[in-house]
């Protein structure tokens, strides 16, 4: 499953743009942009682009989390809806003090990554693999040339929304990643006393990595960055499982804001 391990940008074409100018801006190549967006027959004449079309731009940067380039007329609410997230989370992880004030060409980190379609893939298979729905994939890829519900092209880059809660966004590992003992865990959280809990379970509900906690860089109401590792306390009993990241209620210790990231072993 070819998760793209490099940075991708979602960019809306402006009047006067060319593939060459876009490639130079994002340290990409014309050929890579054409491949990622299937900019050749039967979708379109090779390299033909139109204003307001949305492209996924492959770049050489890290990390793999996608950035959205603000287009004239964009608002944070509409961008949030495209990626099945909240205005609060987008504003929090991008250090935006006023959610009503964003700027043209501003880069916004969004909960999504790029995945390259393989021969035999369907949107349903891809959605199941990454723990999202077909409708969520469609929303993230709307207005893109070459994207259709019933016809998808090998080599095309799909923007895949990352499962989140209102208060937790896991950036590492990405959904579908193969993990092992000591796997790095990173993300953003808005949680009580900045305490972020995590564990790993396999598909037989066996706890592979018991519950542990780490501390985010800031506590609620801010979104703080957190980083930890996932030591295995026992071997998985299946080839697939989930990384659980959550908080505990101060009132009754119940699990809150659970994010379940599908992984393989």
From TrEMBL:
Q: Origin, by domain of life?
A: Bacteria
Positions of the LysM domain: 9-57, 66-110, 113-160
Q: What is this protein called?
A: LysM domain-containing protein
């Amino acid at each position: 499953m070819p998760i793209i391990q490099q940075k991708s940008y979602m960019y809306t074409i402006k009047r006067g743009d060319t593939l060459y100018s876009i490639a130079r801006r994002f340290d990409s190549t014309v050929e890579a942009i054409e491949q990622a967006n299937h900019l050749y027959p039967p979708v379109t004449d090779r390299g033909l682009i139109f204003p307001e079309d949305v492209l996924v731009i492959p770049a050489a940067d890290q990390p793999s989390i996608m950035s959205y380039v603000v287009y004239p007329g964009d608002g944070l609410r509409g961008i949030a809806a495209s990626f099945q997230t909240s205005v609060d989370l987008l504003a929090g992880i991008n250090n935006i003090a006023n959610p009503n004030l964003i700027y043209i060409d501003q880069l916004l980190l969004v909960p999504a990554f790029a995945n390259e379609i393989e021969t035999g893939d369907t949107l349903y298979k891809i959605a199941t693999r990454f723990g999202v729905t077909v409708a969520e994939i469609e929303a993230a890829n709307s207005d893109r040339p070459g994207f259709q519900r019933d016809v998808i092209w090998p080599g095309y880059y799909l923007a895949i929304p990352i499962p989140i809660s209102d208060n937790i966004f896991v950036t590492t590992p990405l959904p579908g990643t193969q993990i092992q003992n000591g796997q790095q865990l990173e993300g953003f959280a808005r949680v009580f006393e900045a305490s972020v809990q995590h564990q790993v379970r396999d598909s037989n509900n066996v706890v592979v990595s018991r519950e542990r906690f780490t501390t985010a860089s800031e506590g609620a109401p801010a979104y703080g960055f957190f980083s930890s590792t996932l030591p295995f306390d026992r071997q998985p009993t299946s080839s697939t499982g989930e990384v659980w990241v959550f908080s505990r209620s101060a009132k009754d210790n119940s699990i809150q804001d659970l994010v379940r990231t599908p992984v393989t072993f």
